[in-house]
Structures are given as structure tokens and as C-alpha cells.
Amino acid sequence: QVQLVESGGGLVQAGGSLRLSCVASGSIVSINTMGWYRQAPGKQREPVAVWRSGGSTNYADSVKGRFTISRDNAKNMVYLQMNNLKSEDTAVYYCNLDAIYVSGIRSGYWGQGTQVTVSS
């Protein structure tokens, strides 16, 4: 069974920083993508930063230059360093994993989400 556990959310003032962490457990053979999405109240879930196999990364335009995604391959972890936070970054942040498992099946999973609240 695959589990994604996020941590690091919280309340921060505008201009501040937070670092989110997500660890994946389970019988993972290879990871295709691992990244962060967010959902603000009344809005659809949107991609924030995604790491792709081969090492490329994609960022939402709204976070470019402020957020950085990184991975620890050995630990199946992904991080999101968020700097210069703005009130519009307030959302529930979800970790997402798309991987191939020992069963040979490719599947995607979501974490439970972690709240990030930026006060202005």
C-alpha cells in the first residue's frame, strides 16, 4: 500500500518562508512524476511544482522565482521551499506521486494535504 505523508504547512506572514515535505512509502519501482498541487477555497486544484523523471521540473507561473522543488531519491521524498509568500498562496497543498510499483502497475496517489495560510 502506498502512502504519501506531507508536513511543513502552517501560518506565516506575507514575505515569509515555509518548507513542505512529502515522503512516499510503498513498493515503488520507479517514479514518473512527484510534485505539489494546491487548492484554494472555491477554486480547482492546480499544479504548483512538479518533478519529472529525467530531472526536469515545471512550475506554475505564479510561483516561478519564489518556490523551489527538490527531491531526495534515496528516501522517496520531495520538498517544496516557498519563499516570499503571498496571501494568494494560501491553500491546501497536496503531494502527488505517479509511479510504477512492484506489481507492474502504474498509478497515482495523493497525500492528505497540508494547510498553508499566508497573512497579509
List keywords for this structure.
120 residues; mainly beta; seven-stranded mixed beta sheet; 61% strand; elongated
Report a brief summary of the structure.
The protein has 120 residues and is mainly beta. The chain is built from no helices and eleven strands.
Describe the protein's architecture and organization:
The structure is a single chain. By secondary structure, this protein is mainly beta. Helix content is 0%, strand content 61%. It is built from no helices and eleven strands. Strands 2, 4, 5, 6, 9, 10 and 11 form a seven-stranded mixed sheet that branches. Strands 1-3-8-7 form a four-stranded antiparallel sheet, with no helix packed on it. The protein is elongated, with a radius of gyration of 14 Å. 28% of the residues are buried.
Poorly predicted ranges: none
Sheet-strand content, in percent, reads over 45%
Major β-sheet profile: 7 strands, mixed
Shape label = elongated
String of helices and strands:
EEEEEEEEEEE
Helix- and strand-based class?
A: mainly beta
Number of strands: 11
Number of helices: 0
Helix content: under 10%
N-to-C terminal Cα separation, in Å? 40 Å
Radius of gyration: 14 Å
Mean pLDDT: 95
